[in-house]
Specification:
homotetramer, about 425 residues, alpha+beta, 9 helices, 12 strands, about 30% helix
């Protein structure tokens, strides 16, 4: 990517963050309905701080901060970059206002584009790399912004609607679940080459797979409902010990965003509240629920190596943010499908370093590496992930109890 | 008060709520920085719901609610009036928007004024009484709105300013503390007659006082600082057991809103952050701190009966909301002063029913009576209380650990 | 009381503590089933520490502590007497063993009796007073020991029995509730004279009573059951706000120690589990429940001044610890009865200082005064209180939510 | 193993549990100083219940339970075997007494030995397998009993001593850390064959290793102290995010059981409190600390496959329970040493199912499988593990924050 392309991409991605906020009222930008989510305005400011902190401050000599306290307010978790405002209180800050946050974005954009136009030679390569990282970082937060908005809206009895969309007509019923077989052996996974990837996707390395098969598509609502109707949430033998405790403490009886209206199961998503669509992939599952469903079905979740091995052969296309739907869609093809887009797929792999893993040097090493503890890997992206952000080697990670990301479930099975 | 006067008062008070919000940005209306406070827009809507719920719904036949879910969202704690949205989550609601809340106010105002213009005869007296109660209720929430705004702003490192005000020049230094003596005996306290008062101020009844004296003015910052400098916050012998635990858990070292800048004590109030003014009455004390100070000073807090007996002889005037300052002012007179306005005065009386107390019938009985447990009485109003709202018999109440209301401290002593 | 009598009383009371432990297994001495209770061996050691700390250490020159760490382990809450082991962890200490605690008692007894035999003249009066206080303190802990044992046993599914006792045959059914009237006016309450009383009972002072009447006996189980059967625990209008929250959080549906076996209400007490006896006074109520019952009955709780005024005319006799039953008994007489013994009676009075209250000087001032916050007064003693410990002016106090003490309920009413 | 040998082994292991309790006072059997530990008497009863529940109840027709409630009291976590008493409250039960627990052991021993003498033919194989499992289970609890006793004693200011032991004289200083290299490739790990192993060690399967090297011995106290002295506990860059939060919440500044006396580091173990021995392997580390140390040292922890591959070539011998020391010993040999015994070694592997893992059928499937969530694997046994219990394939597992087991740390490194 040359400099002009980089500038163009910067501008496009920055603009998209703001476009995604177009449906929001000023009030919607400010709230934080649980600790895990952040206010939209915080996301807008934090991604801006990232460019300021890691590029402008070290490399743009003339740069003047708009407000020094923003460094405290909009640092997320970079311990070695200074203090940060407590995460659970992000929704308690009315200032800076939304308008001021937009001004902050303008302020940084101006300085950054100027720097990109005339980068100091000895830092040009670093700057370019960090801008690229900052862009990917902002794309990640676009997904968070939609995830968080959905959660924030979901606890409001008024059921606010983020957007109205005409979902595409479906030609056919969803194909029945089928199984694609893969032969084991030594395979390579992880990112290779110079193109952008996060540190946690490296190094590419060899691993050993047993023979296995994958479900050809994501598990859908109708299938998951059969699990519920079979007493899935009441059968202790199906659940991990941590899962069972969580289920009871939080009184789970269905995936997040499902609720009952009379006898009907309803579903709240970015387009509002709807009757549950049976063919839509089941979404907003914790790892615990995905694992329990798999056990009930006599299957298991794939490992991340299995998933990557299978996905590596496929084109990166699917129902991404780019479709403008922000809703997962029923599978429409036979054969291995939905590997990319629609929903992140839980794997049975813990999020741990690859053999030979080296985090980025300095503060940016905090980006990924320090979270390699008690999290599980998800793969493949979702209907709110930008397609350009996706790679076969991309490792997303959440705690096993988390449910507010766009997570779904694909089954796997050993071939004995 | 005749009907025209009542209508006028309704309009005046309703307008004042909105005027008090004029300095707020949209974002400021939405936040809730701790469980005890509410977002400004919630206050604006809740006081409106009060008129809707207790007057329009029972008495205005044609009335149509703007949104039925508001009954759930804006009920505060009236268990017998239906469900209510969890208090700690009020700051998690972006909708209704601020604009929608103002529309709700208009909607109810229109219907209420229409009803007041043509009240159904058989309910006219009830309506009038309830409108009066609703007005007093809204005035109470005006005070809460300012208290809560101050707290909400205080946790923001940007230190937002609610209003700028030119404080009046002081003629003289604050007079030294002196003591006014009162002779005991059987006295009457509580509200008498038909004019408006809350149920908890009734019935007027006889009580027995010992001889006592009162400090002529509120304790000021300089005096409180002497307590701090004497190790007041480290001397366990000065504190009640609950107080000591609270002090340690919350790491109190000074009143709420005091903070240190280098060696200087600073103070955050509705006008922003300032150097502490030595003559200003010390404010935002918990009962625990007021009690510890009094013990340190070899004095005690007054009982509510002592306070009311002394205050009953004074005109109800002082530094109230009406002054437009919203900041307590140094005492400027010798003799018993500051009994009204400036700061609520902690008493040593638990908030308990008067002999013969009868709560209002029905749901409105929940207004005051059900809180007669583990709270302490404060008296006299503050610089953010409307003067028209005050009475000698007025009983305010908070928990002993609370500090975000405009509370201060007057000393008392036995005459032996 | 002369010195010989004091020595005798010391020996008698010390022996009684140990006699009360006779039914315990070694294991029973060690447990702490909730934060509010203490292990029996801790009680035995703490009361011993009290004599050591406040008498032997200051006044017995030759005294050598058996173990210096006991000062830390067995200090309860005397902040100015040194550190103390965290209360919630008292049940986590296996050492000192029970046998070692008894040795500690012997060690202190020997030294104390020696000191009492030859008190240094200049301290003789102080020593005598402190021994008397220590004796009363130990008697208080005898009651706690039984309360705590009952609670500790209650959570064990094996339902251990503390003692078996033949309850006396009842001549007659409990008399119906009647009302005794009292004329108001200025009365005196509080302890007078030189005989022993706690600091919180002083000074005797004048107070004003309205005309009132008292229920002639304690409310009994059958009457309380009528409240339950009338939906008492589901009717929010009967409960204080704090009470309703507590009831819901703790899922109260009946007094502590009641449980259902099939359709029958059962009751666990120091003699084991039994069918509920309808005539027995209802016990182990929180203040919240006593208050709700009174509201349901259209009555109220007495104030402590009313209670003391009424009780002051009666002989101090009743079903105390001395009866050896440790179970409250149905009222057997008409006229005002059960004022003393059987169960502590909740009042509607907050536990606050009397006018002119002065705590004991020094560390012993922590005995009572620092708890005058958010507690309610109970009066009259119970079936596990020693009769010699009781006075008309005796003020017991607990938090409104507490239920593990032997608390009951007498109704009061205004005479209008 | 024939039947006579099985009976012999049953008797030996049962006797060892009781022998390990010989140093305990009755009181020591009853306490539970944190949620993770259990009272000794609970361990003694629970392992007995295991034989009763899984062997006597299904297979011994004539068997009569000593007490039916024991099934509730002594079930640990087998959800499908009935209810269980809440784990955090195990220390709140004084009954059954220690003597009663021993009677329970006798009762079950008698019945079980009778059954083993005359097993019903059609169940003989099942019985034999389950007895073997029950024996291994009891051996596991012998380790827990010592771990828990150490913790229970550690919080007592009196520092009780479990046993006095003469540690062996050391011939030489601990050898310097050296590195043993291993060539990667496809290797097999997991248990093979019919001999006893837990379900989680199966199936034996192939996995791929990179080239790696292992530290020849455990990291010792002196080396760990260098990490502390280098600011290890204050350098956020060395810690995982979860680790840093835990360290701050729990205020870790050293491994568990280290404390300072003046300037000296002390260490509390089963033999009491001592000056820290520099050559002793560092123990009672969380995974977080082991991981941070490794990062500081520029190394990493081994994977469990690496460990097993290396250990599989070694004889299973070392400083186990059998040595009677119960204290880890300094390494005394050059070359790869301490792989077995002394301390469990943290790996960087999450505790997850092996490819093709099948839990035991029925309730016994809850033994291991349901804990495969958010735990890390430890390998090799410790100085309180019985040697007969150990296998190269043995997988122990704890949460990353746990520190009360006898855990230590061996370093690994990639060969590039």
């Amino acid at each position: 990517m040359n400099d002009a392309e980089l500038i163009k991409r910067y501008q496009t991605v920055r603009a998209r963050s703001e476009a995604l906020c177009a449906p929001l009222e000023t009030e919607d930008y400010c709230i934080q309905a649980m600790e895990n989510v952040s206010p939209s305005k915080w996301h807008l400011a934090h991604v801006t701080w990232f460019f300021e902190m890691f590029i402008l401050v070290p490399y743009a000599k003339q740069y003047r901060m708009l407000c020094e306290k923003y460094a405290h307010l909009f640092n997320s978790y970079y311990e070695t970059a200074g203090t940060f405002f407590p995460r659970p209180q992000r929704g308690m800050l009315s200032r800076p206002t939304v308008a001021e946050v937009y001004s902050y974005r303008r302020h940084v954009d101006t300085a950054l584009l100027e720097l990109l136009a005339h980068p100091p030679e000895q830092h040009a390569a670093d700057i370019r790399q960090r801008v690229q990282l900052g862009i990917e970082h902002e794309i990640q937060h676009q997904e968070l912004l939609l995830m968080d908005t959905r959660y924030n809206f979901s606890i409001n009895p008024l059921h606010p609607v983020y957007h109205k969309v005409a979902l595409p007509a479906l030609n056919d019923p969803t194909p029945k679940m089928a199984w694609q077989e893969f032969t084991g052996g030594i395979v390579e996974i992880g990112h290779d080459g110079d193109s952008f990837a996060y540190d946690n996707e490296r190094p590419r390395h060899r691993t050993l797979l047993q023979d296995f098969k994958l479900g050809t598509r994501l598990v859908c609502n109708a299938e998951y409902l059969a699990f519920i109707d079979d007493g899935g949430y009441d059968r202790v033998d199906l659940w991990l010990s941590d899962a069972w405790r969580t289920l009871n403490e939080q009184r789970w009886q269905a995936p997040l965003y499902w609720f009952k209206q009379g006898r009907d199961w309803m579903h709240f998503d970015l387009t509002g509240a709807h009757t549950l669509h049976p063919d839509e992939p089941v979404s907003h599952l914790s790892h615990y629920e995905a694992d329990a469903y798999a056990r009930w079905a006599g299957k298991r979740l794939p490992t991340e190596a299995e998933w990557e091995h299978a996905a590596g052969r496929q084109a990166i296309s699917g129902n991404f943010l780019d479709s403008g739907l922000y809703v997962p869609q029923p599978a429409q093809q036979t054969g291995l499908t939905q590997m990319y887009g629609d929903l992140w797929e839980w794997t049975q792999s813990a999020y741990l370093p690859y053999p030979g893993f080296k985090p980025l040097p300095g503060t940016l090493g905090e980006y990924n590496g320090k979270f390699m503890s008690a999290q599980m890997v998800l793969r493949g992206g979702s209907c709110i992930t930008a397609q350009e952000h996706m790679r076969a080697s991309y490792r997303n990670f959440f705690r096993a109890a988390d449910r507010w990301m766009f997570s779904g479930l694909r089954l796997a099975e050993d071939i004995l």
